[in-house]
Amino acid sequence: MKGRHIDIMGIVNLTDDSFYSESRCMDITTLMKRVAQMVKEGVTILDLGACSSRPGSEPVGPQVEWERLKPALLEIRGKYPDMPISIDTCWSEVVEKAYDYIGDFIVNDITAGENDPQMLPTVGRLGLTYVAMHMRGDSMTMQQLTDYDDVVDDVIRYFNEFSEKAAENGIRKWILDPGFGFAKTTWQNYQMMRELRKFRKPYAQGIIPQILVGVSRKSMIYKTFDITPEESLPQTQVLHLKALQEGASILRVHDVAEAARTIEVFWRLC
């Protein structure tokens, strides 16, 4: 535990449809102001999303995603050439274009390759790091299936199967995202957090993936307390601390400074 590397993945939304308004960057000036603040506060990965994954949101296609991403990538790479970038997309076409444009980056796919049959082969061929997230049903229409025998066992079973597909497609480095808030009840989300350590196990080819936790300001907090996402920062940090104690090594966050302080507290408790 002590001394392991922990990344802060800062959320930058290039869409006006994300559930937390402060993360929205609809012009270059706003984008670069947010990025500069995150860099100052200690972000280690910038996570760019050009299509909202909020349940009930309006999906867009790869062309619209790329139109939003391209100028953002140009500005960020120009000013921060060494900053690791993650791109939220479920389209192999976007991955191809982004790779041709900026080279290496992390693919963050909420569908774990199920939306686009060319996604996993493309990621494997390009040698990119891949974030695979668990979900069931269609997050865009809120048609999500929450009838698990046991949510932790079922999600582990899902990643056992995914790991085989990743190996078949030449993906050598992938990151496990249990999918907090996607096709899980509030109770199931908290069960996954309590048992998060179980996900860090050997999968196909003996790979033990890093665990990414994305709970920042999510409904598992604000619906529990009947508050808004804007009011849910303190409880977010409680969950971040628990996630770190249970072995998470990447926190996907809206609030970089607060996450950095939570990580410092974690190290002092170790």
Topology:
Elements: E1 7-13, H1 28-41, E2 45-49, H2 62-79, E3 85-88, H3 92-102, E4 106-109, H4 119-126, E5 129-133, H5 151-168, E6 174-177, H6 186-194, E7 212-213, H7 219-225, H8 233-245, E8 250-253, H9 256-269
Parallel strand pairs: 1-2, 1-8, 2-3, 3-4, 4-5, 5-6, 7-8
Describe the structure.
The mean pLDDT is 91. The radius of gyration is 17 Å and the shape is globular. The protein is α/β, with parallel strands linked by helices and 270 residues long. Helix 1 crosses helix 2, helix 3 runs parallel beside helix 4 (119-126) and helix 6 (186-194) packs across helix 7. It starts with 6 loop residues before the first strand and ends with a helix. The protein is built from nine helices and eight strands. An eight-stranded parallel beta sheet has the order 6-5-4-3-2-1-8-7, with helices on one face. Strand 2 (45-49), helix 2 (62-79) and strand 3 (85-88) form a beta-alpha-beta unit. Helices cover 41% and strands 13% of the residues.
